[in-house]
Amino acid sequence: MLVLVFGLVIFFGIHSVRIAAGSFRDEQIATNERRWKGLYSLVSIIGFVLIVWGWSLYRPNAPEIYEPPSWGRHVASVL
Asked: Is residue 23 situated within a structural domain?
């Protein structure tokens, strides 16, 4: 679960730079736009990979919160 949370923090953290530190982002883009985009993409991908990996680690132990009724599949296909 820790890997999943860490991935979420990284992914949403890098996407929140514009909100939290807009001037820092603008400085980085003004200095070297390609470097900023590369770093942004790399950190986003790392966060996404950690989210997927953390979910795959957590999923086998996750409790079943809701189980849809057996007739639900047939109703959904008709609708």
From this structure: yes
Torsion of CA 39, 36, 20, 43, to 10 degrees: -10
Chain length of the chain: 79
Pair of tokens at residue 46: 């790392």
Q: Which two tokens stand for residue 19?
A: 């909100």
How many domains are contained in the chain?
1
Q: What is the pLDDT of residues 5-38, one digit of tens each?
A: 999 999 999 999 989 998 988 998 899 999 999 9
Q: Is residue 53 part of a domain?
A: yes
Q: What's the pLDDT at 63?
A: 79
